[in-house]
Design a protein that fits this description.
The strands form 2 sheets. Strands 3-2-1-4-5 form a 5-stranded mixed beta sheet. The protein has a two-stranded antiparallel sheet with strand order 6-7. By secondary structure, it is of the alpha/beta class. Helix content is 50%, strand content 15%. The protein has 7 helices and 7 strands; from the N terminus they run βββαααβαααβββα.
């Protein structure tokens, strides 16, 4: 046990951003291999149906998808293991992945946030650590983590902002992670959210 608690915010460029400013880059394995995927897909579509060459092309495409899936899974398990080694309690925000998929498309499926949460949940249970997920309706990005002031709007293109009330300067993702930590620990203290395990 480390006695440490952390809040993390999910993102596209950075897979996770911690309340201490730590940022873990998103691997985006499929995104970076999209040219290879298109080439293999075109190669399959050109083959005659029922031919041995089409079977080989289909198998090659399936192997490509399996390799990407394995790389992503390996990233998830290694990251989850690192987090449960460093922290006793980990706070995350519940994500509306369907809405995110509509907005950002293939990248959300490539990152597989929901799968990572499942992996992290398993690792927390195995190592007797606590995973807390706060409500997706918490305004973590547009609430000042210093004074609690809440902005009416916070467009996604704004990555840094200054609180008009207290003057605190914020990195959008780090500020969100700080609020996730605050809400997660306070919710855990009230016992209204069941942590994992």
């Amino acid at each position: 046990m480390t006695g440490k608690t952390a809040g993390f915010d999910f993102g596209l460029k950075h897979f996770l951003t911690g309340n201490d400013g730590r940022k873990i880059d998103s691997p985006l394995y499929l995104f970076h291999s999209i040219s290879e995927l298109r080439r293999k897909s075109r190669n399959l579509s050109k083959k005659q149906k029922g031919s041995n060459s089409r079977k080989r092309a289909k198998l090659e495409l399936a192997r490509f998808h399996r390799r990407i899936s394995n790389l992503r899974s390996d990233f998830h398990w290694k990251l989850a293991n690192r987090l449960v080694t460093e922290y006793d309690t980990i706070c995350l925000e519940t994500l509306n992945t369907k809405a995110m998929q509509q907005m950002w498309g293939r990248k959300i499926g490539d990152l597989a946030f929901a799968e990572f949460v499942k992996v992290l949940s398993v690792m927390c249970k195995k190592h007797n650590k606590t995973l807390v997920q706060i409500s997706q309706w918490e305004a973590t990005s547009k609430t000042c983590s210093h004074c609690g002031h809440k902005e009416e709007e916070m467009p996604l293109n704004i990555r840094k902002w200054t609180c008009p009330k207290c003057g605190e300067e914020h990195d959008r993702d780090v500020n969100a992670a700080k609020n996730i930590l605050r809400v997660g620990t306070s919710t855990l203290g009230r016992g209204s959210v069941r942590p994992t395990p």
